[in-house]
């Protein structure tokens, strides 16, 4: 006596992204916090020392936020015009920022007024950074020049005039005091690499598009540049040989960022996406969507939070979920039985002459299966059409309908329903009939419903409305399919014309394998 | 000229065991059932076949316990004889020649020396009218008795044995046919007829299908085509009869049976549910659902403890008092159509074909036993006639047997064809196939052929399927890119087509470097590594029916048969036709272990077999008229051990054996004389004389007597006692090789075994004791030594010397006899070797 075989629920391949460790990791953030700034957020910089405050440069202000508060801890407002590029020094005590009015200001993080002002540039300063010895400041300006300043004296040490266009991004080496890299606005412009002592660039790399952002790997062997739709990786140790060119955004890439362990590269773009790349394979492993075009992006140490600044002045903060929090959710889903249940009968040790009575294992069946087993077809369909199943797991409802069809009892199950039951059925059909995974099964069911309830159409306004809606959707679907077929036809012609014509090498064979051979007759003589 | 000297076509098992109702012996230990031309005796506890009662030359149509002796059974056959058997020992006692084909047999304890048989009405031989005849069995000592004393009892009865039943104490006999129920009272010599209307109000059919009568009460139960059961009472009066109706079955009641006490009525039908009705409390019923297939017969053992149902899928189920299925005797399932090819599972060497609906069956050819059913469809089977179900239509194995591909389809009228391709992986842990990938709708139309790449050294496993939709698809096992995923799965690698023609068959070359797909009359050859069309071969007119690549030394040849009576062999190196011959080939298949190919050619209602090698257009072997009708399915099954026949005509059978299915679904094979002889010897070895009850008392006494006898025989007993040394191994061999169900009791074996171990000690002691032994016995020992040596050289030959029958204590005469047999065996062997 075989046991009842439950209805097989077809497992459909999941559409969309696959669940990988990366998606699990990058999805493990809390709901975002949105903070409205005064203007477009152009730069975000995290303080290298705990508690890892971050400076947000937006319009004429620089706000410093703490890791948990949603209000600025500190704000620097003494800019006459738009501020650019607020950056912390490696000890987190000083902050430098450029300005549209060509003055570079240096602030004490605890103070309010600028400690030093560096004047010398003639146009807006977009790039400011501390060198690795923390005594000098590098600035890049729209006057095509790049200058090196001494912090205490506020004097200009060097000026580099090699650029022929606005300097929009730059990065200093964290290992070598005398190395820094700048990128500029001009098309087909190379991001040159400078040595401070030598007055000329030591290396010139051609990105091909105006460079928007630069990033050095912690090892400083690799340089990442973003410009146009491309993100390019260069090997500095091999004389700036291009390693890969990534084209995953469909608008200009504006910012770059490395994850704390250096294994993932993040890029933000005007197309409102942040993409996460694996730095060994350079494949996109995760993708974040934002509401507006992204101008700046920063990751807190240990990836504790992702901060994204957008053109509409919104600062988006995402904090990582705590270990307990993420655990809590899974714990809630699985309600575990109490301790007593576990211990029950387990602490009994069988005695010498105990006789073990084996109990047959009871087969657990879903409710609709129990009803199918009893041949209660209408009830089984009702169970499968219950709200939760119908909405959350339509494949179960479809599987039950398919099973009923296989048994030849679908008509019986569909018939004899009142207005409410029928409208529920029609509601399900409207929702799922056009899903290509379910269509073959549901079309039969829909036809049967129309056959059965043909005579009562017009008696209920609810059902009539749903039927009309079904018809309307059907027409729309047919139009859509037709359109798709047209596109397919067009594509076919395109492919056919683009493929080279290939001859099948059979001209020589057709002669020799014809009916001409007569000598090799099989001699069939049998007793 | 080819002579087929000693090759014969023989039946090889798999016959129906559900054609007639089985019989349970009175001690409930044995079960007898008619199976083809013999009666099989099964053990009800171990499910093993104990022996076949062979002797009939026609289909056995009925088995019956002899009412006066519960150790004997009658069987009747279409060859016109009734035979009386001692079924515990498998001995034919008597044969009664009736002279007419018999359709069923009935007997009652009240009618001594009379049996009732159903034969066709005498006037015309082939008429559809049957009559019930009483046969008086003459008493005589002869083994073959003519029984010509026939007296007609009822005319116009049904040939179905279920439609005739004896009433209480054999006072009357009930027969149902069509819409009429007839009761014949033996005392009054009078019969009453009751008839029903053809249809009732709702158009249900009232036709009788089966009859059972209550053993203690005057009550007859009849089953009907519409699923009703009627209980007839008071039928000894023509007018005042009454009946009550029970209705549970939704379609035909195919079998009814009362329990021996008459407390319960059992019924069964297409639903495959055994229903147990309480007699006189019919509202109470018990069910035993999901017995697997439609019930055709129900039998209750004489003590009422065991129920036994036989099913339409060639299965007998033994049920303990309507609660638990205790044993299942399963024969080869042969449905109306065989949709999959015959295949051989490379692991278990079992033949694989579709069996029960939605299952693949694995059938052991060596043991004539169904090993197991693999559930392919994995859906609850609805037992309802006229319902379209999923059917397994194609299956294929890889060469290693690691992967199994199966195709199931379901075609409903005016609905889309539902098609599933499933790939199963062999799981070492559970030793069965586990579903790996399901591909729903792999093609848009029916799949015409499917094959795996058979080469063993390639890294990837590849499957090619061809379909009526004009495409062939290659499926490849791919390991997923993400390491977190669980295991490999299959995906489509390539879709090919050729001028929108329909591909019919596909085959891989032995090394897997070429794929040949036939598109009607064109054969296309592809390279599976690059999916390039290498060449096309064609031989118009006539579409290609079968394609086979040559193996081993003939691997450069591709052989194909066309619908236009042509057998062509192409050389793939020159891409030219090597030879062709005109013969109408219905089936072409290649032996996987040798170069040979076999072609079945239907000719004038018969089928001929030709075996040839692709490199020469000359048959190695041919066999005219293998069977009547067309052969559509055949398979080469690799042998367990190779034969070493040197004769040219039988060499092709050395590596593998050819099995084929005839049109009437009989499984046949080819054997050689040497092989048959070996099988005979093996079967003889199995026979053990266990007719004497082995009581402990007998064991003690018997041993004691044996020892006394030995002591009396004195000195001569030395050699007799010495023999057990080599016997020891034989005893172990017997212990290990004999099937468990025919082994004598353990206590018996144990004493034998221990004794065989003890001998060596006594032997050495005796040797020291009898140093001054006579020369004669020394010589005897010498010759014996020699024999031990020869035994070491040829152990398999020794195994079949029939030593299993010997007990531990041998008299001298027996030992001599044994030696004589051994020497004979040697002589025969050497003669074989000289050949």
Automatic annotation (TrEMBL), chain A:
A GO cellular component entry from the record: nucleolus
Pfam families listed in its UniProt record: UTP15_C, WD40
GO terms, biological process: positive regulation of transcription by RNA polymerase I; rRNA processing
Keywords: Nucleus, Repeat, rRNA processing, WD repeat
PROSITE patterns xrefs: WD_REPEATS_1 (PS00678), WD_REPEATS_2 (PS50082), WD_REPEATS_REGION (PS50294)
Entry annotated with the keyword Nucleotide-binding: no
SUPFAM superfamilies the UniProt entry points to: WD40 repeat-like
Compartmental location: Nucleus, Nucleolus
Function noted in UniProt: Ribosome biogenesis factor. Involved in nucleolar processing of pre-18S ribosomal RNA. Required for optimal pre-ribosomal RNA transcription by RNA polymerase I. Part of the small subunit (SSU) processome, first precursor of the small eukaryotic ribosomal subunit. During the assembly of the SSU processome in the nucleolus, many ribosome biogenesis factors, an RNA chaperone and ribosomal proteins associate with the nascent pre-rRNA and work in concert to generate RNA folding, modifications, rearrangements and cleavage as well as targeted degradation of pre-ribosomal RNA by the RNA exosome.
Protein name in UniProt: U3 small nucleolar RNA-associated protein 15 homolog
Source organism (scientific name): Echeneis naucrates
Automatic annotation (TrEMBL), chain B:
Keyword rRNA processing recorded: yes
Pfam families, A to Z: Beta-prop_WDR75_1st, Beta-prop_WDR75_2nd
InterPro entries given in the database record: Beta-prop_WDR75_2nd, Quinoprotein_ADH-like_sf, WD40/YVTN_repeat-like_dom_sf, WD40_repeat_CS, WD40_repeat_dom_sf, WD40_rpt, WDR75, Znf_C2H2_type
A cellular-component GO term for this protein: small-subunit processome
Compartments where found: Nucleus, Nucleolus
GO biological process, one term: positive regulation of rRNA processing
Record has Transferase as a keyword: no
SMART domains (UniProt xref): WD40
One of the record's GO molecular function terms: RNA binding
Domain of life of the organism encoding this protein: Eukaryota
Region of interest called Disordered, as start-end residue ranges on this chain: 703-723, 765-808
Domain C2H2-type: 33-56
Bias (Acidic residues) ranges: 773-788
Start and stop residues of the WD repeats: 53-95, 201-232, 246-287
Keywords: Nucleus, Repeat, Ribosome biogenesis, rRNA processing, Transcription, WD repeat
Protein name: C2H2-type domain-containing protein
Gene name tied to this protein: wdr75
């Amino acid at each position: 006596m075989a046991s009842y075989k439950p209805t097989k629920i077809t497992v459909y391949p999941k559409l969309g992204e696959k669940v990988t460790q990366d998606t699990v990791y990058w999805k493990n953030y809390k709901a975002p916090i949105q903070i409205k700034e005064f203007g477009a957020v152009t730069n975000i910089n995290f303080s290298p020392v705990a508690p890892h405050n971050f400076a947000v440069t937006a319009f004429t202000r620089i706000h410093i936020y703490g890791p948990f508060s949603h209000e600025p801890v500190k704000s620097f407002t003494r800019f006459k015009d738009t501020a650019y590029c607020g950056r912390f020094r490696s000890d987190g005590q000083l902050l430098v920022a450029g300005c549209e009015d060509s003055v570079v200001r240096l602030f004490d993080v605890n103070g309010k007024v600028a400690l030093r002002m560096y004047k010398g540039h003639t146009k807006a300063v977009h790039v400011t950074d501390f060198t690795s010895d923390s005594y000098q400041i590098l600035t890049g300006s729209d006057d095509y020049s790049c200058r090196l300043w001494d912090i205490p004296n506020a004097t200009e040490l060097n000026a580099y005039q090699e650029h022929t266009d606005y300097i929009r991004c730059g990065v200093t080496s964290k290992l070598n005091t005398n190395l820094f890299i700048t990128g500029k606005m001009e098309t087909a412009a190379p991001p040159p690499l400078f040595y401070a002592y030598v007055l000329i660039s030591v290396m010139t790399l051609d990105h091909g598009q105006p460079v928007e952002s630069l990033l050095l790997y912690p090892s400083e062997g690799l340089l990442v540049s973003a410009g146009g739709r491309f993100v390019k990786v260069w090997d500095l140790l091999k004389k700036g040989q291009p390693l890969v060119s990534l084209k995953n955004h469909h608008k200009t890439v504006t910012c770059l960022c490395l994850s704390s362990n250096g294994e993932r590269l993040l890029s933000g773009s005007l197309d409102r996406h942040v993409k996460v790349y694996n730095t060994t394979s350079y494949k996109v492993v995760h993708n974040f969507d934002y509401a507006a075009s992204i101008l700046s992006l920063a990751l807190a140490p240990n990836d504790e939070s992702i901060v994204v600044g957008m053109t509409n002045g919104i600062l988006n903060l995402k904090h990582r979920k705590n270990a307990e929090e993420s655990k809590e959710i899974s714990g809630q889903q699985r309600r575990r039985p109490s301790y007593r249940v576990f211990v029950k009968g387990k602490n009994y040790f069988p005695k010498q002459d105990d006789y073990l009575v084996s109990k047959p294992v009871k087969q657990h069946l879903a409710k609709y299966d129990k009803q199918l087993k009893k041949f209660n077809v209408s009830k089984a369909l009702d169970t499968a059409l219950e709200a939760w199943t119908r909405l959350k797991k339509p494949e179960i409802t479809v599987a039950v309908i398919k099973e009923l069809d296989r048994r030849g009892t679908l008509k019986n199950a569909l018939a004899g329903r009142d207005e409410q039951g029928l409208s529920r059925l029609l509601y399900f059909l409207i929702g799922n009939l056009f899903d290509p995974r379910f269509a073959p099964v549901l079309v039969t069911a829909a036809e049967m419903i129309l056959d059965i309830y043909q005579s009562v159409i017009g008696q209920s306004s609810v059902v009539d409305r749903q039927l009309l809606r079904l018809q309307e959707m059907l027409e729309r679907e047919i139009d859509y399919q037709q359109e798709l077929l047209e596109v397919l036809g067009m594509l076919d012609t395109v492919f056919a014309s683009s493929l080279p014509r290939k001859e099948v090498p059979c001209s020589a064979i057709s002669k020799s394998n014809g009916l001409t051979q007569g000598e090799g007759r099989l001699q069939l003589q049998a007793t | 000229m080819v002579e087929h000297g000693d090759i014969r076509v023989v039946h090889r098992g798999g016959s129906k065991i559900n054609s007639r109702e089985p019989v349970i012996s009175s001690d409930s230990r044995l079960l007898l059932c008619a199976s083809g031309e013999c009666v099989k005796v099964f053990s009800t506890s171990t499910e093993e076949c104990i022996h076949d009662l062979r002797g009939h030359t026609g289909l056995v149509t009925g088995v019956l316990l002899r009412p006066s002796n519960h150790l004997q059974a009658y069987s009747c056959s279409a060859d016109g004889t009734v035979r009386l058997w001692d079924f515990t020992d498998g001995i034919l006692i008597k044969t009664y020649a009736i002279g007419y084909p018999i359709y069923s047999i009935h007997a009652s304890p009240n009618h001594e020396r009379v049996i009732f048989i159903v034969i066709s009405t005498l006037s015309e031989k082939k008429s559809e009218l049957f009559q019930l005849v009483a046969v008086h069995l003459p008493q005589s000592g002869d083994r073959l008795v003519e029984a010509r004393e026939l007296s007609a009892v009822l005319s116009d009865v049904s040939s179905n044995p279920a439609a005739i039943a004896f009433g209480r104490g054999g006072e009357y006999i009930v027969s149902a046919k069509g819409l009429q129920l007839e009761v014949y009272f033996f005392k009054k010599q009078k019969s009453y007829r009751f008839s029903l209307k053809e249809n009732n109000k709702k158009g249900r059919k009232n036709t009788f299908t089966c009859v059972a009568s209550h053993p203690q009460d005057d009550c007859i139960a009849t089953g009907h085509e519409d699923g009703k059961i009627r209980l007839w009472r008071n039928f000894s009066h023509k007018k005042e009869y009454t009946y009550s109706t029970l209705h549970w079955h939704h379609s035909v009641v195919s079998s009814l049976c009362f329990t021996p006490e008459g407390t319960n009525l059992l019924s069964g039908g297409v639903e495959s549910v055994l229903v147990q009705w309480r007699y006189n409390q019919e509202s109470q019923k018990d069910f035993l659902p999901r017995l697997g297939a439609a019930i055709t017969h129900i039998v209750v053992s004489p003590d009422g403890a065991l129920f036994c149902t036989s099913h339409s899928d060639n299965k007998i189920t033994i049920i303990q008092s309507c609660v638990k299925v205790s044993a299942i005797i399963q024969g080869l399932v042969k449905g109306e159509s065989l949709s999959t090819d015959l295949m051989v599972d490379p692991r278990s060497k079992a033949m694989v074909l579709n069996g029960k609906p939605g299952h693949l069956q694995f059938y052991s050819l060596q043991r004539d036993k169904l090993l197991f059913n693999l559930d392919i469809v994995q859906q609850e089977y609805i037992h309802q006639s006229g319902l379209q179900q999923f059917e397994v239509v194609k299956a294929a194995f890889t060469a290693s047997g690691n992967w199994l591909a199966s195709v199931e389809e379901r075609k409903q009228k005016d609905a889309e064809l539902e098609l599933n391709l499933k790939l199963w992986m062999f799981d070492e842990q559970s030793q069965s196939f586990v579903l790996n990938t399901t591909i729903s709708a792999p093609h848009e139309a029916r799949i015409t052929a499917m094959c795996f790449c058979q080469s063993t050294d390639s890294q990837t496993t590849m499957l090619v399927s061809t379909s009526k939709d004009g495409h062939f698809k290659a499926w490849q096992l791919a390991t997923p890119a993400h390491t977190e995923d669980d295991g490999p799965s299959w995906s489509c690698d390539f879709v090919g087509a050729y001028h929108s023609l329909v591909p019919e068959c596909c085959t891989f070359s032995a090394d897997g470097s070429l794929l040949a797909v036939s598109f009607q009359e064109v054969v296309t050859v592809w390279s599976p590594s690059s999916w390039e069309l290498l060449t096309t071969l064609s031989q118009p007119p006539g579409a290609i029916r079968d394609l086979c690549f040559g193996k081993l030394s003939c691997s450069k040849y591709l052989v194909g048969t066309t619908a236009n009576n042509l057998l062509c062999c192409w050389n793939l190196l020159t891409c030219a036709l090597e030879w062709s011959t005109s013969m109408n080939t219905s089936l072409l298949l290649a032996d996987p272990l040798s170069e040979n190919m076999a072609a079945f050619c239907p000719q004038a209602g018969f089928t001929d077999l030709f075996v040839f090698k692709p490199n020469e257009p000359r048959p190695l072997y041919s066999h005219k008229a293998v069977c009547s009708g067309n052969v559509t399915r055949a398979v080469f099954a690799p042998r367990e051990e190779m034969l070493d026949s040197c004769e040219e005509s039988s060499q092709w059978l050395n590596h593998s054996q050819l099995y084929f299915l005839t049109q009437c679904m009989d499984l046949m094979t080819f054997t050689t004389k040497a092989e048959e002889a070996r099988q005979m010897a093996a079967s003889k070895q199995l026979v053990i004389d266990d007719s004497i009850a082995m009581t402990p008392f007998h064991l003690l006494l018997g041993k004691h007597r044996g020892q006394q006898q030995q002591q009396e025989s004195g000195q001569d007993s030395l050699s007799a006692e010495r023999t057990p040394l080599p016997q020891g191994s034989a005893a172990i061999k017997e212990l290990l090789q004999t099937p468990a169900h025919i082994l004598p009791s353990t206590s018996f074996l144990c004493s034998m075994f221990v004794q065989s171990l003890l001998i060596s000690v006594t032997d050495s002691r005796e040797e020291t004791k009898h140093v001054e032994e006579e020369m004669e016995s020394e010589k005897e020992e010498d010759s014996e030594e020699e024999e031990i040596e020869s035994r070491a050289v040829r152990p398999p030959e020794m195994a079949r010397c029939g030593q299993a029958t010997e007990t531990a204590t041998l008299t001298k005469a027996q030992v001599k006899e044994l030696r004589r047999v051994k020497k004979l065996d040697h002589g025969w062997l050497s003669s074989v070797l000289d050949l």
